[in-house]
Design brief:
alpha+beta; 7 helices; single chain; 3 domains
Length: 274
Amino acid sequence: MRIHVLAVRRVPAVPSPVLLEAYDVLRAHGHEVTDAICEEVGTRTDLLEPEHDLYLLKSHTPLALSVAGVLDAGGARMINPYAACVRTQNKIVVSRLLRAAGVPAPRTWVTGDGATLAGLADGRALIVKPYQGHRGAGVHVVRDPGALRCAVAAAGCPVVVQEHVPGPGEDLKVYVVGEQVFAVRKPFSATSFAVPGRPVAVDPEVRAVALRVGRALGLELFGLDVIESPGGPVVVDVNYFPGYKGVPDAGALIGEHLAARARELEGAPLALAA
């Protein structure tokens, strides 16, 4: 099959080692793999039609999502599905879908004016996030009404306001490839998305929660941030196709999963490469 990846621009501008390893696996299975960063090419969208057998949406940018939407409208086959990526990118929508699926997640409010929720910050800590934020950008912890109003005003877009969930001081990053679930631990910071975590065993309850998230949002390559609270795991964020940093052999795992999915789409038995 011809497989094309809508890739993300990296800083520094070096190829993702996870993707390169996945590409090698796919090519070993006989597939043709290409990629492109939407921001670095000119695309005539009014004439754009799917040219590849399978697309993989890696980028989270508005341009990449828009191009993926055009391809989806033209009948492109995509992993993760375009509609699932759009849902996942919107934290307002995700908050409701997770609650409906019985996934443990913080209580969440949405507003464009911090004054409307000022009473929530009277005596409690809250997390304020842009509703379509990514990689921790624009996330604030607020503890009083004034700080809440300032954080909402600074966002320049609708925000989600979540109750603060106490945890051990480190985030549990959970990564899913199909039905396989992996986890790493690392402290949260503004740049922690670029730092590999320490691989840890996956608790059965965490695994069950992760797979429930995938079913609720329609994802098969995704990650979630989990706080290990005194009452159990709580999902505080979900991302489609994350970096899988710290997961041993992540590229090979992703490549084999995509090769198996490609074979399913071809309607033929899976033939492993020699």
